[in-house]
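Re: export button greyed out
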Amino acid sequence: MNKELAKKLIDVDMGRQEADLAIMNVKLVNVFSSEIEETDIYIADGYVAGFRGNKKAKKEIDAKGMYLVPGFIDGHCHIESSHLSPTAFSDSVLPFGTTTVIADPHEICNVCGEAAMKYMISSAGNAILSIYYMYPSCVPATPFEHAGCVLDASEIEKFIDEDIVKGIGEMMNYPGVANHDEFVMDKLEVAYRHKKKIDGHAPDVKGDGLDAYIAAGISTDHECATPEDLVERTKRGMYVLLRQGTACKNVLGLLPGVNDGNYRRVMFCTDDRQPQTIRNDGHINHGVNLAIGAGLDPVRAITMATLNAAECFGLDDRGAIAPGRRADFFLADSLEKIEPDKVFVLGKLVAEKGSIILRSRPVRPEGVAGRMNVKNFSEERLALKLESDHVRVIDIVPGGVVTKAGDAYVGRDKDGFWVHDPKEDILKLAVVERHNGLGNVAVALIRGYGMRDGAVATSIAHDSHNIIAIGSNDHDMAVAIEELISLGGGITMVQNGKVIDSHRLEVAGLMTDDNVDDVCRKLDDMHEKAAKILKVSPEIDPFMTLCFMALPVIPEYKLTDIGLFDVRIFDFVDINLA
Amino acid sequence: MNKELAKKLIDVDMGRQEADLAIMNVKLVNVFSSEIEETDIYIADGYVAGFRGNKKAKKEIDAKGMYLVPGFIDGHCHIESSHLSPTAFSDSVLPFGTTTVIADPHEICNVCGEAAMKYMISSAGNAILSIYYMYPSCVPATPFEHAGCVLDASEIEKFIDEDIVKGIGEMMNYPGVANHDEFVMDKLEVAYRHKKKIDGHAPDVKGDGLDAYIAAGISTDHECATPEDLVERTKRGMYVLLRQGTACKNVLGLLPGVNDGNYRRVMFCTDDRQPQTIRNDGHINHGVNLAIGAGLDPVRAITMATLNAAECFGLDDRGAIAPGRRADFFLADSLEKIEPDKVFVLGKLVAEKGSIILRSRPVRPEGVAGRMNVKNFSEERLALKLESDHVRVIDIVPGGVVTKAGDAYVGRDKDGFWVHDPKEDILKLAVVERHNGLGNVAVALIRGYGMRDGAVATSIAHDSHNIIAIGSNDHDMAVAIEELISLGGGITMVQNGKVIDSHRLEVAGLMTDDNVDDVCRKLDDMHEKAAKILKVSPEIDPFMTLCFMALPVIPEYKLTDIGLFDVRIFDFVDINLA
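Workaround output, generated via the alternate export path:
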């Protein structure tokens, strides 16, 4: 609020000036009173001036009894998962009624650190969607891989006082909190000192451990997976997020824990939502509709998706439709299944019937474009010399991000190098460090991908986002890796030394300014080619599966740029077995 | 929170250190889940570490199933109304379970401006009770009287960023908001810029006017008087305070407006509570008990008195009993009528069975003691020369702060001076400017006080707190005024030129460091003397009535240091009638 705006709104309310817009005959979803209110609404300078009375407006829309719903707030997401830059992401989610997101730019910050944060903040400035950030707390996520940078307390300090930064992102290192690791505590201390929020990430943490985590000031959890855990967390004052992402889907599982007493500590989030999931299922409205479909009162579901999130993050200017708040809302025909018809941001029509009308202008990706600092790479670096036929193998588990620690007897040539056997579903996996020209290339074996002949590579490889490539032969893999480097990042498929297709992600190798429809078309096409040409197993997603094979916090075997890692013992292991 | 505290709490939770105190076998009133939870609670360094688990403590108390209730929060009060300095006030309310108050030091700031604010802040530093302030928005309350100072936007700016200052106090000038008066808007602008709250005061404001008031960012109202107004205010996002003061009592009247949908926007306050009301009826627990007695669910009543207020004012460290929050709570036997047994602040026992144990140490009242800057006063200044026998008279209305605009035919001596007629209940009223040595003395006539012979004077005279005196003769009035000046403020009674008794209020003429029991004894005694010796009408409070006779915002006739004021026309009027 500022004085000029306040005066304008007061003038409209007192009938001394006309509102810019009035939406007449709405059924307002009032999240303060938990009821539906038949009224008109007056908007001036992008804010709600007031309700039915003796006001006048330059322009009137007759909503003919449609519901007017406050814009949804996504309480926790990683924009990077959409493959879309923040401005393209804005265009993709506004049609679904999401008008504010709390984003943790964990992925891009792993790649570009401070430059990433600057880029994300400047993109948010251009986006019509309101984007707030939680500063990533865990970069790098582990000491077992090389990310683009190390973001310690002093780095957080640089951004924490920005209005757009609401606090510190998901503190995944809960053992670090329980043991008050100094590196962790120094970061929390920044939040304490600047009176900012700290987001949690505490799967399965309970009892004394949960007390400790909450006592440390961590106030949200989006990794809560059971109704019992939801009940325990909310009882201790935590906000629990009902997550509906592409892979992790918790809304229906958690809903039985939500009740009259605790629902004010519950909100919705998407966490990681792939572009196709956004296009096909929507965004926060998807989770809300699932909850309503499962019997949650629609006004309560909307309250959770709006006011609760706004209160959690101290966003006093939104989360409800009320005088002095942002005119961020949408009209919808029904509350049984919410499909936004007209979506307004700051009183402007930005989307209608599922299509974006007002697009956000991308920013120049300064310091984050084409970040491919790969040194000393050549096809020869992919060669895998074994000391034994009996080796460790990463076993893909379809439909998840975990793997199994497998073993196999494999073929070697006369010099001891691994030889691909087309009859066995074992391929080579490589991780190539791409951030600081360290020259690291690590190679391992992986089973269950299904591909017969060729290679796939991507620069999306959680959480450090080095280049990860899978292939039947070193040449195709090298071609794929080189193609990615020349693209500046993305996803590519190669067969017989030729690039079949590529999806370019020019922003840090993670995101693109292309629009969601183009991105989805490209990915659909590439999925089809992966199945038809490369024969990747229909049980797995050829690209997402790859993205998680370098993540050394999810069991059991993973490959980082340093080597093969056994998450169960939190240490590197030799590929060779006795 | 800070790092050392977090580490300590984590250690206690993880069993690596002992808690300072454990309270075993409590029925915890859980305001997050709206239920009663049987558990144990562990406290370290004044904060809640956690709940029943594998924790250990140096000391255990067995609560034997008593209820453990979060400390109550008074959402709006004027400490000055208690006649007690903030530290003495702390001692008076802690036994009733109030552990935090949001105070508007409107009265003392009218007297001493910046020095008052410094004194109040430094007193809060010494008080065991948590005291937060809303910076008074309306000093002086009107331009029709002389207060000690003018607090404009630049004065507010000096204090607004202090952590202890949560925002700007009750914006009484709602016509000023509706007309966006620049003096008012400049003050609101300070709150906008510093992202602080603005408290409201909007009796009977509705519809478009209410929209305007809320659009201006004013987010609370403690002057709401009907269930319908409560419903309208909460629907628009305002917090409504259920007030139970000495004179203004709204809890039972407003309660019918509170429902499942809106109760999270409702809290309790006392506003103005005289010392005897605190002693006899308690504090926030009084309003809470009235609500419970009227059928409100006790857990809901407690939620309103704790979490709702904490959320409204952004006090994340209290309002509930949960890990990482202040150990401010009390034990009570019953939730049907809440009578705190043991009260804890920061984990320390501060009161037990209605008596204070841990007293707060007063601060030196620098710049606020004995503020009696009266110039050119003498008995002769009280003489009232009339040009007519027919004059305007202030008619006291028993039981309230309003007066009626009366008239009377009175006696005059040969020089035209008013003569007291013992058969008529008409007395002289005088207001003597005491802040800046302006030398103002204004005199008028008043009816309905009942006193036969003598004078009463006080330095409590809302809102400017000049000296106000009532009397049958100029000499007794002059003696009373001189006595007050020499006391440095308070209340005094005189008859036949002799002081009968005085209640000294050495802090700004409004408050004392004496304890509540001594103050009440003194006031009881003086009330008795006022009735028995001075024969003040039993229908009115001899002192409180006087306190409101100079308040030129409450109809109809009032007397300020400038003259007789008719609130109906917002202008001064001549005492003489045709």
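Chain A touches chain B through 63 residues (CB under 8 Å). The button fix ships in the next patch.
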